[in-house]
Design a protein that fits this description.
The protein has 80 residues and is α+β, with helices and mostly antiparallel strands. The chain has two domains: 40 residues; 32 residues. It has two helices and four strands. Strands 1-2 form a two-stranded antiparallel sheet. A two-stranded antiparallel sheet has the order 3-4. The longest helix is centred in the first third of the chain and has 36 residues. Bound molecules: zinc ion. The site of zinc ion has 8 residues, from loops.
Length: 80
């Protein structure tokens, strides 16, 4: 009867160890996945200013008649 208790206790300890190990593995895997995806920056479409040819994000560009521009000054300068 005493041995049975020891065996049950050992099984419980083993089970707890396995559960904590699995949790640790999952956390490590999530970290690895996060690290893998981190360097990949979201691709933002870039455009070229029609006047100074500078590359800028499409969301920052100003659209004029002659194309897209990096700033209001260049849009005005181009007469668009
Ligand atoms: Zn420009």
């Amino acid at each position: 009867m005493k041995y049975l208790l020891v065996i049950v206790l050992a099984l419980v300890v083993f089970w707890l160890w396995r559960v904590s190990r699995r949790r640790h593995d999952e956390a490590a895997q999530a970290r690895r996945a996060a690290n893998r995806s981190a360097p990949e920056k979201p691709i933002t479409p870039t455009v070229v200013c029609a006047l100074c040819k500078v590359h800028l994000a499409q969301s920052e560009a100003l659209v004029g008649r002659g194309g897209v521009y990096c700033s209001e000054a260049h849009r005005r300068e181009a007469g668009a």
